[in-house]
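Exercise 7. Given the encoded structure of a 233-residue chain, write a plausible sequence.
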């Protein structure tokens, strides 16, 4: 993947500004704060898929998710199939962990901001036709909700468009390693996740894959006079 990077240069005819990592992070934090101030919440659908080919274990679960303006999430399971053990002991625990991490206080401890991460600029790349800065992120503490890896920051919106990496702390003693890729897209005025793919090497069970699709978003923008009159970017 590094071969596709064009360090601080021109990408497909688009000029990439020459910025340092602190400058990029400052703009990222400022733009994210503006989005948070305008954010009124969203609803959407998640589809979780689990597969372990070695033990022929598969499961699927579809849930409705509602996220309020503070970022706190609630989930309602709509359909499920496949291994009951996987659904109850893996997928539902994933949902419970995300719901817990979204609560006020916990959310601030997991945001990709300088209080939680160190940043290093690697270069630039094209992602879905849009130029991005690529930064290495290193968590400042061990936490299963923090990621050690890379982020792609959209040059135009200064929003995170992709995350790749591993949890700063393994979520379970049964798991030897986890690789996570999460992609985002601009939905209305906000950048929201559209796909997550995780590969874990689990003791005894071997390689396991989990994917999450996010769709049918409906977003809400705060409608106070200040936010109606001020553009988001």
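Solution.
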């Amino acid at each position: 993947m590094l071969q596709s990077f064009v360090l601080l240069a021109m990408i497909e005819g688009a000029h990439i500004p020459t910025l340092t990592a602190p400058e990029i992070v400052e703009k990222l934090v400022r733009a994210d704060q503006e989005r948070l101030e305008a954010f009124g919440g969203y609803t959407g659908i998640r589809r979780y898929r689990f597969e372990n080919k070695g033990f022929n274990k598969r499961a699927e679960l579809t849930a409705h998710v509602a996220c309020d303006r503070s970022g706190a999430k609630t989930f309602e399971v709509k359909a499920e199939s496949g291994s009951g053990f996987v659904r109850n002991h893996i997928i539902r625990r994933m949902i419970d962990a995300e719901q817990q991490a979204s609560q006020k206080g916990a959310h601030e401890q997991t945001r990709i901001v300088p209080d939680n991460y160190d940043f290093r600029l690697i270069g630039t790349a094209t992602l879905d036709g849009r130029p991005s800065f690529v930064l290495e992120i290193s968590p400042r503490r061990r936490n299963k909700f923090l990621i050690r890896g890379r982020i792609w920051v959209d040059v135009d919106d200064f929003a995170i468009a992709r995350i790749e990496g591993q949890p700063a702390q393994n979520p379970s003693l049964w798991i030897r390693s986890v690789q996570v890729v999460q992609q985002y897209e601009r939905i209305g005025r906000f950048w929201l996740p559209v796909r997550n793919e995780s590969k874990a090497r689990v003791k005894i069970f071997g390689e396991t894959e989990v994917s999450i699709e996010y769709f049918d978003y409906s977003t809400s923008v705060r409608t106070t006079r200040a936010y109606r009159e001020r553009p988001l970017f």
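Remark. The helical segments are 21-38, 84-101, 225-229. Students should compare their own answers with the one above.
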